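Q: I'm a student working through a structural biology exercise. My instructor gave each of us a protein and asked us to get a predicted structure, then write a short paragraph describing it. Mine is DNA-binding transcriptional LysR family regulator. I'm not confident about reading structure output yet, so if you can add a plain explanation after the tokens, that would really help. Here is the sequence I was given:
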Amino acid sequence: MSTPTRRPDLDDLEVLALVARSGSIGQAAQELRLSQPSVSRRMLALERRLGVTLLHRTKQGTTLTAHGRLVVDWAGELLDAAERFTRSVATLRAEGERVVRAAVSMTIAEHYAPAWLARLHAVAPDLQVSLSVANSTEVERLVRTGAAELGFVEVPTVPDGLRHQQVGADRLVVAVAPGHPWADRTEPVGAAELAVGGVLVREEGSGTRVTLEEALRREGHELVPGLVMASNNGLTHAAIAGMGPVALSERGLEADLKLGELRAVPLDGVFLLRPLTAIWPAEATLSDAAARLLAAAGPTGTARPGYPTDSAEGGSGRACAP
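A: Happy to help. First, here is the predicted structure for DNA-binding transcriptional LysR family regulator. I'll explain a few features afterward.
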């Protein structure tokens, strides 16, 4: 049984092709700015590696053997393919420097991300952002699996094992239609009453729902949800129609509160302020594009009291203070 041919070094094949073109190991060595013995040793090593005599050496110069001519032809195809590969990877790297894959929670997508993207475009108009919109749990999954390089969530507890940096804060408001019994109350609604009040909420995994549930648990109560819907807009219209209280971002309800279609409900002992947090894999270094998006999303290194700032660990599990 013959010994399998070992894969040659591409650089050695390039040297062989140069020897073939120049007709001389000495001339090839001169063009490569190497010593002639060094190039000769490389060619001998290549022949041993391939198990084929490639060059016929004489005092008049170096010529290819019949096998050598075949190897040079094949090497040309291989070297061309390697060059195409190198150019393709360079193109991919250049695209990666101009494109960032990010994922954001729905509330952030609707009320915060547009301003971030506008700021980013003002300083880096050539940078492209591929933005996926999902609830906070799904955003975390996309970051962990590498489907998104950078994520933005609005949960009160930092996800474990991810680097994170607070970029802002958002407050939830509980609001009702003018005809609801809570609309004209003079005393605040407490955690116990809110928990069983049929609050219209987002689906499980949403940062908005997680924030409400954790706020109630801190007071010893479990949420008994009313209508559940994966749409901020849908929940708002359901509340306006009188289906019950709704808990959503103050940003999202601002217009309806000003118009009087909804009324904010004062709360007692239920704190609904949550951080807006950028997350990315602990072992990853953000690309320049992702770092620019993070910078555009908000101030860095300026955490509010009770909120974590940039960290390699998300395992503290601290709920953010109001």
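A: Here are two points you could use in your paragraph. Residues 10-95 form a domain with the Arc Repressor Mutant, subunit A fold (CATH 1.10.10.10). Residues 300-322 have pLDDT under 50 and may be disordered. It's a good idea to check both against the output above yourself.
Q: Great, thank you!
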